[in-house]
């Protein structure tokens, strides 16, 4: 199965931090108050995508 | 994995208390100025949105109502509500209404108008609120500002509650004027260095794509296949 990872549409992110709070691996941070940034530990569980109020997080397959 | 709760995870109590206190004595509305100045100061001097991310009691309250009490439909917010023109437009409208409120306070201050003991909900509905005014000791403009400011806070809470019910719990965060403003401050603050750095993960771009291909970046990233 291909690896999955959360991807943020950073241009449309409102930097509210809801995803940061929900990430079970605590690998999301808000970059300089501008947008959310997914860390390297992301396993693509999709929790952040489901809580994002702006719906700007997608789960995408990545090449390992 | 359960995260241990920190003291700032209980800020929703303050937000809820603030709204309740306004029903008893309108002068408590002045405390709400903290919700204006703290995020702005943290954005201007701290350069981040730590207020939204950590301390915002309102966001926590919506989160609690929507998730813990299952009051939210948890549907995607309509695209226009999260569009830039709506967010910036709402911020502009909100600030205009805020200035209007300040002007009303000024008219009471100069004695042109008398104190109106009403809370204006959604900028139009004038709710009688005389029972919360015990301010015989303060000058009328102090009470007028309190009524005006409480109107702002109650209006935004009502809007937030509606979008909490209809969409995601924290949908308010998408068009929250304070959130939009602090994000704009951060963007302005870092605009220069962001332009210099094409990529903040690496100092020079080697197309590793580790910063994400969705970055608002001038460099066109190439995948390994490309």
What do these coordinates show?
The complex is a heterodimer of chains A (about 60) and B (about 230). Helices cover about 15% and strands about 30% of the residues of chain A. Chain A is of the alpha+beta class and about 60 residues long. Chain A has one domain: 2-Layer Sandwich (Alpha-Beta Plaits). In chain A, strand 2 and strand 3 form a beta hairpin. The longest helix of chain A is centred in the N-terminal third of the chain and has 5 residues. The termini of chain A are close together. Chain B is mainly alpha-helical and about 230 residues long. Chain B has one domain. Chain B has nine helices and two strands, in the order H-H-H-H-H-H-E-E-H-H-H. Chain B has a two-stranded antiparallel ribbon. In chain B, helix 6 crosses helix 9. The longest helix of chain B is centred in the middle third of the chain and has 27 residues. The two termini of chain B are about 40 Å apart. Classes of the chains: A alpha+beta (about 60), B mainly alpha (about 230). At the A-B interface, loops of A face helix 3, helix 8 and helix 9 of B.
Shape of chain B: globular
Helix coverage percent of residues of chain A?
Answer: 10-25%
Mean pLDDT of chain B equals 87
**Could you tell me the strand content of chain B as a percent range?**
under 5%
Strand order of the largest sheet of chain A: 1-4
Poorly predicted runs of chain B are: 213-226
Concise overview:
The complex is a heterodimer of chains A (64) and B (226). Chain A is α+β, with helices and mostly antiparallel strands and 64 residues long. Helices cover 16% and strands 31% of the residues of chain A.
């Amino acid at each position: 199965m291909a690896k999955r990872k959360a991807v943020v549409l950073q241009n449309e992110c409102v930097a509210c931090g809801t995803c940061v709070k929900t990430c079970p691996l605590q690998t999301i941070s808000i970059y300089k108050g501008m947008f959310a940034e997914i860390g390297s530990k992301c396993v693509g569980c999709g929790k952040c995508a489901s809580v994002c109020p702006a719906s700007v997080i997608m789960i995408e397959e990545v090449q390992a | 994995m359960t995260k241990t709760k920190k003291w700032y995870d209980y800020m929703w109590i303050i937000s809820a208390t603030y709204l309740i206190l306004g029903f008893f004595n309108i002068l408590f509305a002045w405390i709400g100025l903290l919700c204006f100045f703290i995020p702005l100061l943290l954005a201007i001097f701290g350069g981040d949105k730590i207020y939204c991310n950590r301390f915002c009691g309102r966001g926590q309250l919506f989160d609690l109502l929507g998730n813990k009490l299952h009051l939210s439909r948890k549907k995607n917010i309509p695209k226009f509500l999260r569009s830039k023109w709506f967010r910036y437009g709402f911020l502009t409208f909100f600030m205009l209404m805020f200035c209007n409120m300040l002007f009303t306070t000024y008219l009471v201050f100069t004695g042109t108008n008398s104190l109106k003991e009403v809370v204006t909900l959604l900028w139009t509905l004038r709710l009688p609120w005389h029972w919360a005014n015990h301010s015989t000791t303060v000058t009328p403009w102090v009470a007028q500002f309190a009524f005006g400011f409480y109107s702002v806070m109650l209006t935004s809470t009502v809007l937030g509650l509606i979008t909490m019910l209809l969409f995601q719990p924290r949908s308010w965060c998408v068009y929250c004027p304070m959130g939009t403003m602090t994000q704009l401050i951060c963007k302005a603050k870092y605009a220069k260095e962001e332009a210099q750095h094409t990529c903040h993960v690496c100092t020079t771009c080697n197309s590793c794509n580790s910063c994400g291909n969705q970055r608002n970046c001038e460099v066109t990233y190439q995948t390994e296949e490309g």
